[in-house]
């Protein structure tokens, strides 16, 4: 089969409604190419999202899809994975969805090492609601909700993921599709929680923070001598203000939540069965 046909097999036929010039088209392209590279059967693939322009993505891909509620992509994705561990689960959403209303879920899915891939489309703005600042909008930016400049400091999604204990953390750029496809492929292959931050511009409401020309000037591909097992080295690259480092920042595999569940279940089965009487005696 032609490679192009293989990619198209992952398109649902519903055309994206994103604005002309939106960086999300490049992300969709990289994503379906990664699925094709991995030869993922569409009936073993589940895409889960929250709310936002980015969260519309499951409509456009031929796979199981769950367009959830704002900020809740991760707990829904975790539920899907635990209910059916054979599925490849990919959660997608924006910086607002994942770091503002959904910000409380991120550390727990990361520290628990749930076996899923979480792709955050970081355009540093709330696109769908037309240009309010988000947790990744840079200091002093002028937006619809900060017309005279934003007083708050921006969060750094990749650095947060490293600190939260994600076992795989990468950063890509929507314009660099081949590189991004490779990161997504590696993230899906990784056994455990894989976080991929994608820098992308919102052509309608924020072309400043994620200015394509500036990112091309400042970006550096991570060198092969970087050791992704070294958390401090990963953090230094993620937090570097002078350059934008793209590639795999962190990779440190460990047991997944599902494996630990299994271990605990086995232990429980070997122990004495609890009885209602024994439990009641503890409260007597
Ligand atoms: C509970 C709730 N609060 C607020 C909203 C309004 N809302 C919809 S999308 C969105 C932000 C989307 O921004 P982001 O997650 O960065 O995604 P983008 O649209 O930029 O892809 C907000 C605040 C909502 N739908 N539900
Ligand atoms: S509003 Fe921004 S993020 Fe949403 S589709 Fe348009 S360009 Fe993309």
Summarize the structure.
With 284 residues, this protein is α/β, with parallel strands linked by helices.
What's the layout of helices and strands?
Elements: H1 3-8, H2 24-38, E1 45-49, H3 57-60, E2 64-67, H4 73-83, E3 88-94, H5 95-101, H6 106-111, E4 117-122, H7 157-164, E5 168-173, H8 177-189, E6 194-199, H9 212-218, E7 219-221, H10 231-239, E8 244-251, H11 257-270, H12 276-282
Parallel strand pairs: 1-2, 1-3, 3-4, 4-6, 5-6, 7-8
Antiparallel strand pairs: 5-8
Helix pairs in contact: 2-8, 7-10
Bound molecules: thiamine diphosphate and iron/sulfur cluster.
Features:
16% strand; Rossmann fold; alpha/beta; eight-stranded mixed sheet; binds iron/sulfur cluster; binds thiamine diphosphate; 284 residues; single chain
């Amino acid at each position: 089969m032609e490679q192009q046909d293989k990619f198209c097999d992952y398109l649902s036929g519903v055309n994206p409604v994103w604005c002309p010039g939106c960086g999300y088209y490049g992300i969709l392209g990289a994503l379906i190419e990664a699925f094709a590279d991995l030869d993922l059967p569409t009936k073993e693939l589940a895409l889960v999202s929250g709310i936002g322009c980015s969260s519309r993505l499951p409509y456009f891909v031929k796979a199981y899809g769950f367009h959830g509620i704002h900020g809740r992509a991760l707990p829904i994705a975790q539920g899907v994975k635990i209910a059916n561990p054979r599925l490849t689960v990919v959660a997608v959403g924006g910086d607002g969805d994942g770091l503002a209303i959904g910000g409380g879920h991120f550390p727990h899915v990361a520290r628990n090492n749930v076996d899923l891939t979480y792709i955050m489309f970081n355009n540093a703005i709330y696109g769908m609601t037309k240009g309010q600042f988000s947790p990744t909008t840079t200091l002093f930016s002028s937006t619809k909700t900060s017309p005279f400049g934003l007083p708050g400091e921006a969060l750094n999604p990749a650095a947060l993921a490293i600190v939260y204990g994600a076992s795989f953390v990468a950063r890509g750029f929507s314009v660099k599709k081949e590189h991004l496809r490779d990161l997504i492929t590696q993230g899906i292959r990784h056994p455990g929680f894989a976080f991929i931050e994608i820098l992308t511009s919102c052509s309608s409401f924020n072309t400043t923070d994620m200015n394509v020309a500036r990112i091309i000037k400042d970006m550096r591909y991570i060198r092969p001598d970087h050791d992704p097992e070294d958390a401090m080295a990963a953090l230094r690259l993620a937090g570097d203000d002078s350059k934008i480092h793209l590639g795999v920042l962190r990779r440190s595999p460990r047991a997944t939540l599902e494996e630990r569940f299994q271990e605990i279940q086995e232990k429980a089965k070997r122990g004495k069965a609890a009885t209602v009487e024994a439990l009641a005696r503890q409260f007597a």
